[in-house]
């Protein structure tokens, strides 16, 4: 049975798009980790990656210690999702600038970008500077990791 050329071409296009979303190492977490490290810096403390079924307690303690000491750090929290890989991360550059990074293998639409948010990583990441004075909090909707924004995005 011959496979039509269009089906093969479509398959190649889809695989190429998936590879771009996953990054060079084939892992979606690689794109998020590189974005977090680019914000925090190479010498930043890695407070870890919290998967969906892990407790965030240890990572949250690391974040709070680094934040209180004004040290650069980054952390990521995987989010439950049925149709994609999504996660949130925090990155502090050691100069008092904390950023929230939202990541999804399904691209965000440019209409999701408001105010001082940036759409990066070929549409897979949204980077938002945390409002100052920065306040770390546990989001009501997920209750797992830490964030710096209120549920309505205003602080």
Task: Give structural notes.
This protein has 155 residues and is of the alpha+beta class. The protein has one domain. It is 28% helix and 23% strand. It has helices at 5-22, 28-40, 57-68; strands spanning 45-50, 73-79, 86-92, 98-104, 118-120, 125-129. It has a 6-stranded mixed beta sheet with strand order 1-2-3-4-6-5, sandwiched between helices. Strand 2 and strand 3 form a beta hairpin. It is globular. 29% of the residues are buried.
For this entry, give a set of tags:
155 residues, alpha+beta, 6-stranded mixed beta sheet
Strand count, sense and closure of the main sheet?
Answer: 6 strands, mixed
Helix-strand category = alpha+beta
Q: What helical percentage do the residues reach? A: 25-40%
What's the number of structural domains? 1
Number of helices: 3
Low-confidence stretches: 7-25
CA(first)-CA(last) distance? 61 Å
What is the mean pLDDT?
Answer: 82
Q: What letter string, H or E per element, gives the SSE order?
A: HHEHEEEEE
Form type:
globular
- CA radius of gyration is 17 Å
Strand order of the largest sheet: 1-2-3-4-6-5
Beta strand %: 15-25%
The count of DSSP E runs of length 2 or more, i.e. the number of strands, is: 6
